Amino acid sequence: MSSADADQELRGLTAAEIAERVERGQVNHVDDSSSRSLGEIVRANVLTRFNAIVGALAAVIIVVGDVRDALFAGVMVSNAVIGIAQELRSKATLDRLTLVAAPRLTAIRDGARVEVGRDDLVLDDLLVLSPGDQVVVDGAIVRVDELSVDESLLTGEADPVGKAVGDGVLSGSFVVAGSAVMRATAVGDDAYAAKLAREAKAFRRPRSELERGIDMILRAVTWLIVPAGLALFFAQRYGEGDSLQQSLVGTVAGLVALVPQGLVLLLSMTQAAAVIRLGRDQVLVQQLQAVETLARVTLLATDKTGTLTTGSIVLEGIEADEPLDEALAAIAAADPQPDPTMSAIRTALPDEPGWSAQGRVPFASSYKFSAVDFGERGAWYIGAPEVVLPPTDERLGRVGALADDGRRVLAVGRADRLAATGVLPTDLRVLGLVVCVDEIRPDAADTVAYFEREHVTTKVISGDNPRTVAAIAQRCGVAGADRWVDARELPDGGDEFGDTADRTVVFGRVTPEVKRSLVDAAQSRGEVVAMTGDGVNDTLALKDADLGIAMGSGTPAARSVAEIVLLDNRFATLPGVVAEGRRVIANIERVARLFVTKTVWAAVFAVIIGAATMSYPILPRQLTVIDTLTIGVPGFFLSFRASHEPARPGFIRRVARFSVPVGIVTGVVTMVAFGIARSELVGLDRAESQSTATIILTGLGLVAIHELMRPLDRYDVTLLVSLTAAAIAAWSIPFVADFFELRLPGVEDGILAAAAVAVGGLGIMAANRNGDRLVRLASSLMSRTSRTSRVGRQK
């Protein structure tokens, strides 16, 4: 029967039936969006806690004060712009990648074959499947001709799967050999691949430690704002007797100082710069915090195909008593639809001997061999050794050993003529074995060794045969790769599942759900998990992992849920990403200490002003000068320094160890000096006192920078000298001084400022260099207080 006659027999849907299904919404419309929409991106970067705080304070200044005092709001705008621009850049890159795979399909409608787009398919459509086609809907086979499909993107299983009439085929598969007609049974969001992608997109990953730490600081500031604001306002309005406008401006100045607004911006800028650098190395970072997360990873869960291996198969050797190169080259050349193994033979033996094929038996998964008749040169058979070799053949032992070592083995034999399809000839003489192997990425072993040196555990999770996966993992140097398990034999859950997952290194025959469970089990034991993958079967695990890493050649679903996409598909790119993440973490932690120091001294100001009912010692615009010279500019340069320190937990603890004592010293010394300046002893007016306080805060800020950078190199000395020169210029250049209301000090206020900076500087040095001793002392006092409290309650 011709294909046309067969198509008449399978008429497919009529135009009326198609219209009816379109009306009911039974169309293959799938949300292939590679990331958040423009509106979602804008909302996520604009509607934040930080922007709400800063925006409200800026609004107060604009309404009641001088617009110059609202300069701090520029940080809010810059932060939002950087975040939006980065996400839009990633979205554009992913959208271009998604356009690459927009298949055209052949359907049978009204008894004729027509070409349709993926989104035009409807439920019950008949699809014609040919080698190389991508299956875009779920369906059932209604007619078949030795069909084999590659389901590796769904299951991780590398070997083609044979299909018969009535068998199901899932979206995301590819046709490797043969042909078939399939009836669509699930389309659009009901298809298997779409369900996995949708479920993956529904999950949100926990925030990184830096984000959590900074958010914790912002939450603390949020709680402080109301009581601090009330204390500042009433102290100035009713204690100092300031006007309403002066009280509001002073209150805003105090609250703005409390908010480490530049910290959020600097984090975004530093991460954005890292993203740009990584982009030059073909690494697409979709979310800024991903750079930091990878630097904290303790467990790398990687797939086999496409990560440790290239996804290709290579001919490793031929074990035979006589030369078989010519015969194998002829067999490979005669195959019109070579599978990966036959392609490997064709690549290794490209010189065709010119043998004329007079007949052939195509490969089928039902009988697991193929054959070609070369006339006088005989009929040559090649296929699975367990089928082609006699059961008593001693070479089966060798085949088993090679298979256990991760090799793919084919047996080659010759007969006088072809037998019937699916039957081996009785005179078949097996002449040798063809040994093929998954092509290991040349840089895989070095990459695995790098993570081993950095104390990152590598585990391999694959849908393939666990013996094969373990052998490949061993060749790549994965520690403990001999500890493997077939995931179908894993316990159902609970502690037993977690214990088995913890001690096992290689997992084979893993389903998407089990892969996800393995990630969750590792996280429950305190691991920071990075997951690499490229298939639909990886999407749930990629989303649940602390960091999802997809290959650029992977499916749109995998790329859309991953934070990092390796556009060049190179596993070896990851060490560079780790190094960049470590640089970001170390530098942000260093700069965070400056910002939190300001928050601490601003809190000290609020307490002293509330208790002593004093006016605020600086104007909001003067705070801009202090921020620029002691935090913004030095923070910017410090954030780009090279650093190779490993990431460590305890971000908040280390920041507090520096910032709390330094901030307390700075706040107390400045407020005491401001009080002296306003007293009858010195007798400065408010404007002169505020300028003097600004000098003191700037000087103490430079001392804090010095302590933060110790030991200093030439780069650090140059930075400190430049900042000092810029400070002198700010007070000396008339239009700058007038704009920020800065006044050159006279003799009395000059001596006061110098003495305050000297005393405060010594205090900062003592606090920083004896930080560990102070922490132990504080812990001892807290412990002693707790014991005393317990004794008192017992009495």
Automatic annotation (TrEMBL):
Keyword Transmembrane recorded: yes
Cell compartment(s), UniProt: Cell membrane
Domain P-type ATPase A: 103-200
Pfam families in the record: E1-E2_ATPase (PF00122), Hydrolase (PF00702)
GO annotations of cellular component type: plasma membrane
SUPFAM superfamilies associated with the record: Calcium ATPase, transduction domain A, Calcium ATPase, transmembrane domain M, HAD-like
Keywords attached to this entry: Membrane, Translocase, Transmembrane, Transmembrane helix
PROSITE patterns referenced in this protein's UniProt entry, alphabetically: ATPASE_E1_E2
Protein topology in the membrane: Multi-pass membrane protein
One GO MF term: ATP binding
Main subcellular localisation: membrane
Transmembrane stretches, start-end: 46-64, 216-235, 247-267, 600-619, 625-643, 655-677, 689-705, 717-737, 749-767
Protein name: Cation-transporting ATPase E
Taxonomic source organism: Ilumatobacter fluminis
Taxonomic lineage: Bacteria, Bacillati, Actinomycetota, Acidimicrobiia, Acidimicrobiales
